[in-house]
Amino acid sequence: VITIDHGGGLRSSFEPVDSPLTAGTLVAKGETIGTLQPGHCGSLACVHWGVRRGEAYVNPLEFVTDLRPSILLPVSPDDD
């Protein structure tokens, strides 16, 4: 398990991951944090991803999905 502390009580965890990082290592957005380990889910590759705010788990999709409603804009006659 590798856990990243994002500050403000927000942490994300990933497993099964093999990582060369040690506790306290700073990582940048987009940086590789490790390699997914095979065999955990049979022949399939899978990662368990959790996000906690304090001690409470929250939906991780809230951090990677734009959950705002879509708004359709009128077509301008100038777009022809």
Structural class: mainly beta
Count of helix runs? 0
Determine the N-to-C terminus distance: 54 Å
Q: How many β-strand stretches?
A: 6
Task: Write the element-wise H/E pattern from the N-terminal end onward.
Answer: EEEEEE
The value of Rg in angstroms is 19 Å
Question: Rough shape?
Answer: extended
Main pleated-sheet profile: 4 strands, antiparallel
Question: In which range does the helix fraction lie?
Answer: under 10%
Mean pLDDT score: 87
* Neighbour order of strands in the largest sheet: 1-2-5-6
The low-confidence parts are none
Strand content: 25-35%
Number of domains: 1
What would your notes on this structure say?
The chain is mainly beta. The chain has one domain (2-60). 0% of the residues lie in helices and 31% in strands. The protein has no helices and 6 strands. The chain has strands at 2-7, 10-15, 17-18, 35-36, 48-53, 56-58. The strands form 2 sheets. Strands 1-2-5-6 form a 4-stranded antiparallel β-sheet, with no helix packed on it. A two-stranded antiparallel ribbon has the order 3-4. A hairpin with a 2-residue loop joins strand 5 (48-53) and strand 6. It is extended. It starts with a strand and ends in a 22-residue tail after the last strand. The model has no long low-confidence stretch (mean pLDDT 87).
